[in-house]
Structure formats: structure tokens, C-alpha cells
Specification:
With 407 residues, the chain is an alpha+beta fold. The protein is 47% helix and 19% strand.
């Protein structure tokens, strides 16, 4: 484009100079006019030339020096590893692990089984470890890959949070224990009076004794749930290790929760026999709480279905479904809050404490599982618990065996 435009402009310039020379004008005037003609022609060429595309910015390679400048003054301990070697550690990390850690093998520098396990498992990005720096401290370690060689380890101290939680847990446990003793005495005396031969056999006395017994039992259930919640919170960082046959546990706990009076409504479908690592007492409590809730809030003449199968290949899935009134969508996120009730009057009348789903949530979280609740108003509610399968020799999971049970 530019070269084709230069030809006519140069020709015009030459013709103009020749014409002026023929007219007999002075040499200096002719030269000045020629320069001006060429300059104007150059401007016209430049104006017609398309703009050059902007040069692409060259991406600067990420270097350890640039990373060091970014992380050095962070108050959170940060470590950059190159494969299994500590390449960088900011000031907070050097104070925590020692000034000598740079250049060390990461596993040797941390000296903690939980941290070493995280480093050796590429499928995990975080871990909760105890005793990383001092005995009894609690740290959350987050790992973020930077490229195929470099990774960043972030250390978050959760000791203070755990201490506050432990103090709260201890208070609830002690208060619950103190309440349990007088409640047992009250219930004992009520039962004695009801079974005795005294002169309390009047309608009013029987009514009052019934109220005392009912309310005392309700307080007893509340104390029991508070103690259960306290125990779960105290152990939330301890991963259970007992190998449990989940099918037999679900069947037994579901039948216990239904009891003889509601047994006809229970429908069991155990399509797998997974083995999980867990706390037997707590997992039984999960099933009992969910089945009891479904029995209470489902319609009296409808079944409560309990199913056990596998999800995503490596998860055991327990589902409890009722055909009750259902729950409004805006209330579902609050169901696992302590003492939250969608219908306070009905909950208290049925003996509910408002802690059942809160306990379930904490137990499931302790087992590294997941709790999901879905509901449709007028049709019922479905609660699903997913738990990771236990590993067996060869790092494989237990194969399912089909079994159908119904009642």
C-alpha cells in the first residue's frame, strides 16, 4: 500500500519542479518548494497507512524472587516447595518452623504424620493436624499448586478457636451432667408416686403427675442431646477409624427408632453392604435421629423409606424419605441450626429438642461426609447422608452386595 502511493507523489513532485524551472523561477525557491511538496506527500502516505497492531506483552516468567517479595511480609506462615524441598519460607513460617528450614526436605521440616500424609496425597488440598509446633496446637494446612513443580503451603492456626470451642463444650457437658442428676431423682419419685398406694389417686393428682413426668422426660431428652452434641464437638478433629458394616448398623438403628408402634411404616431398601471408618454409636444416632424425625413429621398413614446404596463409586449413601407436609425452601438452610424449629408447637408436642439435625450435621462432618436436605411442600422431605468408604488392602473399596429388605 505504501509503495504504490509513493510513486504518484514522487511523480507529482518531479513534475512540479520541472514546471517551475521552465517558468524561470529562482533556484532557492524551487528547492524549498520541492522539499515542502515531498514533506506533504510523506504526511499523506503516513495518514493512509493502516495502524500497526499493538505489540503483545511478553509474560514474565514467575520466579522465586518475585514470589518471595509477595509473601515475605504476610502474617500467615507460607512455604513454597519445589517437589519435596522447601524453596522459600516467609518470615512467619521461619519463625514457626525455624530459620534453617529452607533447603530441607518438607517432610523432615514438618515432622508431623498428618502433614506428611497430605504431602504424599495429590488428591487432597488440605488437612487438619495436631501438634505441628507445640503439643496440643491445631493447624489447618492448605496446599495450592503454582505449576508442575512449585506448590504453596498455607498454615492457619486454629488453636485459639479450638480452645474457645473446647471451653464451650466443657461448659455444656458439665451443665448437662449437673441437670441429669436431679432429673433422674424427679422421675424416680414420680414413678414411685404413680405406682404407690397413697391417697393421690385423684384426677387432679394424676394430671399433675403426668405433666411432671412428661416435662421431666423432655428435659432429660434435651440433656441427652446436649451431651451428645458436646461430645461430637469435642471430637470433631479426630477422624474415626473403626471399620463398620453400615448395612447392619442402618437396619438395626432404623428399627430401633421406629419401635414396635411405628414399625409397620418403616420400609428398608439396603442395596449395598459398604464398610466405612466411623464411630458406631454416633452413626447409629444419625440413623435414629433421621428416622425418628421422618416418623414424627411424616403423615401417620404413610411409609418412611430408608435406603442404603453407593454414590459416585466411593461413597456410601443413606437416604431417609417421608411423605409429610414438607418444608418451605427458605427454611431448609436453617434446619441444622441448634434449637431451630419449623413448627415450634408441633415439635415440642412431639418431644423434639431442636438439636437432632444439628447433631446429625456435626457427626457427618466429623466423618468427612456430606448432609443434603431437599423438600417439597405438600409432598415430603428427603435427607441424604454420604460417607466415604473405608479403604482395604490394595487401596480398593469394599464391593457392594445387593440385598433388599422391606417391612
Amino acid at each position: 500500500m505504501g509503495s504504490s502511493q509513493n510513486i504518484p507523489i514522487a511523480g507529482i513532485s518531479l513534475a512540479a519542479v520541472t514546471f517551475l524551472a521552465l517558468l524561470g523561477l529562482g533556484t532557492d525557491f524551487i528547492i524549498a518548494l520541492s522539499v515542502l511538496t515531498v514533506w506533504v506527500g510523506s504526511l499523506l502516505v503516513a495518514a493512509g497507512r493502516p495502524p500497526e497492531p499493538p505489540k503483545a506483552k511478553v509474560k514474565q516468567p514467575l520466579t522465586l524472587e518475585s514470589i518471595s517479595d509477595l509473601i515475605e511480609n504476610s502474617s500467615i506462615p507460607l512455604v513454597i516447595t519445589d517437589r519435596n524441598t522447601i524453596a522459600l519460607a516467609n518470615d512467619a513460617a521461619r519463625k514457626m518452623l525455624g530459620q534453617h528450614v529452607i533447603g530441607q526436605d518438607t517432610r523432615v521440616a514438618l515432622r508431623n504424620p498428618g502433614a506428611v500424609e497430605l504431602l504424599g496425597d495429590e488428591s487432597r488440598n488440605e488437612a487438619i493436624v495436631r501438634g505441628l509446633v507445640r503439643r496440643g496446637d491445631i493447624w489447618q494446612i492448605n496446599r495450592q499448586m503454582i505449576d508442575d513443580r512449585l506448590a504453596m503451603l498455607e498454615f492457619i492456626n486454629q488453636t485459639a478457636e479450638a480452645d474457645i470451642s473446647r471451653a464451650h463444650t466443657d461448659f455444656v457437658a458439665n451443665a448437662s451432667h449437673e441437670l441429669r442428676t436431679p432429673l433422674a431423682a424427679i422421675l424416680g419419685y414420680v414413678e414411685t408416686l404413680q405406682e404407690g398406694d397413697g391417697d393421690i389417686d385423684t384426677p387432679v393428682a394424676r394430671k399433675f403427675l403426668g405433666i411432671i413426668e412428661r416435662e421431666a422426660k423432655r428435659m432429660q431428652a434435651l440433656v441427652s442431646d446436649l451431651m451428645s452434641l458436646s461430645r461430637v464437638e469435642a471430637e470433631k478433629h479426630d477422624l474415626p477409624t473403626e471399620r463398620i458394616d453400615l448395612a447392619s448398623l442402618v437396619e438395626r438403628a432404623a428399627r430401633d427408632a421406629a419401635g414396635p408402634a411405628r414399625g409397620e411404616r418403616l420400609a428398608l431398601d439396603l442395596a449395598a453392604e459398604p464398610v466405612v471408618a466411623g464411630d458406631r454409636q454416633q452413626l447409629e444416632q444419625v440413623v435414629r435421629n433421621l428416622v425418628d424425625n421422618a416418623m414424627k413429621y411424616g403423615a401417620d398413614d404413610t411409609p418412611v423409606r430408608v435406603t442404603l446404596d453407593l454414590a459416585q463409586g466411593d461413597l456410601a449413601r443413606i437416604a431417609v424419605v417421608d411423605e409429610g407436609e414438607g418444608i418451605a425452601p427458605d427454611q431448609i438452610p436453617h434446619l441444622t441450626r441448634r434449637f431451630y424449629r419449623t413448627d415450634p408447637g408441633r415439635s415440642r408436642a412431639s418431644g423434639g429438642t431442636g438439636l437432632g439435625l444439628a447433631i446429625v450435621k456435626h457427626i457427618v462432618e466429623r466423618h468427612r461426609g456430606r448432609l443434603d436436605i431437599t423438600s417439597q411442600v405438600g409432598k415430603g422431605t428427603r435427607v441424604v447422608v454420604r460417607l466415604p468408604l473405608a479403604e482395604i488392602e490394595g487401596n480398593t473399596t469394599v464391593a457392594p452386595e445387593t440385598r433388599q429388605l422391606s417391612q
